[in-house]
Amino acid sequence: MLEFALRVAGMYFLALIMIRLLGKRALGELGPFDFVVMTGVGDTVISVALDRSIPYYEGIIVLVTLAILEYFMGYVGLKSGPLSNLISGVPVILI
After folding, report:
1. How far is the C-alpha of 58 from the C-alpha of 64, rounded, in Å?
2. What is the DSSP string of 44-60?
3. What global pTM score does this model have?
4. What pLDDT was estimated at residue 52?
5. Pick the residue with more confidence: 75 or 4?
């Protein structure tokens, strides 16, 4: 029981740190790729916390990989206009 609580707490704090490092504050600020990353983070946290057959270090590797991909896609989006439009989408003028 204590091992389960420690796994859940560890994954929670790792996910919290990762999300804070990525700097996203609200769901409305997320682009499509950001939303996919956050969904992946949530799935990873739950899977590792609840399934004892998944090693803890594998969850850490997945979270680090998602963070690296997020930073890489953000960098690519800043350097390339067409890729930025593909990654983040093009704003639509309503009025």
Report:
1. 10
2. HHHHHHH-TTS-HHHHH
3. 0.62
4. 80
5. 75
